[in-house]
Design a protein that fits this description.
Elements: H1 19-22, E1 27-33, H2 39-52, E2 64-69, E3 76-77, E4 83-84, E5 98-102, H3 114-125, E6 130-133, H4 136-142, E7 150-152, H5 158-164, E8 169-171, E9 176-179, E10 182-185, H6 190-203, H7 205-214, H8 239-249, H9 258-264, H10 269-280, H11 284-302, H12 307-313, H13 319-330, H14 334-340, H15 343-352
Parallel strand pairs: 1-2, 1-5, 5-6, 6-10, 7-8
Antiparallel strand pairs: 3-4, 9-10
Helix pairs in contact: 2-6, 2-7, 6-7
Length: 356
């Protein structure tokens, strides 16, 4: 992985009079990677900065620079087992436009050491924007740096965050949240969208588009766009029903037969039917269908995909069957729902105003 040496006013290895030697970077970014960080969140962000920093795909840090910092010289292990060597020690925080903390696996151990926490607090006191990506939001909250701020977390960790920080305000229905000089991102693909927004703010729209085109990423999503549907299972106390709901949520495009779900839970189909009726007030097949229709409505509201594609993605065999079921539940057709939605373009325009 391409690593940069500590920040300087000229690019290392360039001769006098070269563009790299003359340029002062417009965007300086410092990364802090936690123990067991999420590699995809880090790589999606750093590659956006890399591609925006230079012409073509030459990776010279001219218009933007980035570095991975650590309080110790040892490589930092990602949750997938890959290690990244830090480019240098913790540098002066005011030298950065953003300090980005990339989190990963939640576990009982310490994600960053006391020296790093003290350094983050120093950056906060100096007014440097702090960014928490994935469970980096937990790191910032544990350091007392999210008090009174909205904090974006993945729906997957929403309950974990609420239990650990009951006096904070977690947001799990958006890709990322900007609250003054604190920015938090749920992670996953949203990390690429946040990086695009930061590049566009500092380096312009063409630089942001270039990175996404080279990485073959689709349209830029604003932070206000919804995360993929959150699980209902977390709200259910009965362990057997909760496990059944998780199976359903993980098999929306290829629905499992109810008998298969019952078998995996070591229940008879009749037992599962009675259990669902008691806990959820519906038969499992009815609830499963409603879950898939809810997912379809989410796709209609937040993507530009065709109704036929959405029908297949939500596990319906054909568009006509999907349309009948959708209208029976909502009282209007999928085409009517699409017409009522502001659409991706309108949401993008609204997001752009945040950075103007």
């Amino acid at each position: 992985m391409n690593q940069q040496r500590p920040l300087s006013r000229t690019s290392p290895g360039t001769g006098p009079g070269s563009p790299a030697a003359a340029a002062v970077p417009v965007l300086n970014v410092g990364f802090v990677l936690t123990d067991n960080f999420t590699l995809s969140a880090f790589s999606l962000m750093v590659d956006q900065f890399r591609l925006a920093a230079d012409d073509g795909d030459r990776s010279r840090p001219i218009r933007a620079r980035w570095q991975v910092m650590s309080s110790h010289p040892e490589p930092i292990r990602a949750s997938c087992g890959v290690t990244v060597s830090p480019s240098g020690p913790l540098a002066e925080p005011t030298g950065f436009d953003y300090i980005i903390v990339v989190g990963g696996l939640l576990h009982g151990g310490q994600h960053v050491d006391d020296e790093t926490v003290a350094w983050l607090k120093r950056g906060a006191r100096a007014g440097v924007p702090l960014v928490g990506v994935c469970t980096g939001s937990f790191v910032l909250a544990r350091a007392g740096l999210m008090t009174g701020r909205r904090c974006c977390v993945s729906w997957y960790h929403y309950q974990d965050f609420l239990e650990e920080f009951p006096h904070h305000t977690p947001v799990a229905d958006r890709l990322y949240v900007i609250d003054g000089d604190r920015i938090t991102c749920a992670g996953g693909g949203g990390a690429a969208d946040l990086a695009t927004a930061l590049v566009e703010k500092h380096l312009g729209r063409s630089a942001a588009q270039k990175g996404r085109h080279i990485l073959q990423l689709d349209r830029q999503r604003p932070g206000s766009e919804s995360q993929p549907h959150p699980p209902i299972a977390d709200l259910v106390a009965d362990d057997r029903v909760r496990r059944a709901l998780l199976m359903m949520e993980q098999h929306l495009a290829d629905p499992l037969p109810i008998a298969d779900i019952a078998r995996r839970l070591q229940l008879s189909t009749r037992q599962l039917e009675r259990l669902f009726q008691t806990v959820m007030g519906q038969r499992p097949a009815e609830f499963y269908r409603g879950l898939r229709l809810r997912y379809a409505r989410f796709l209609l509201d937040t993507t530009g995909r065709s109704v036929t594609d959405i029908a297949l993605e939500a596990g319906f065999s054909d568009c006509a069957h999907f349309s009948r079921q959708f209208k029976a539940q909502h009282g209007f057709t999928p085409s009517d729902a699409r017409a009522q939605s502001p659409g991706p373009m309108a949401r993008n325009l609204a997001a752009q105003r945040l950075f103007e």
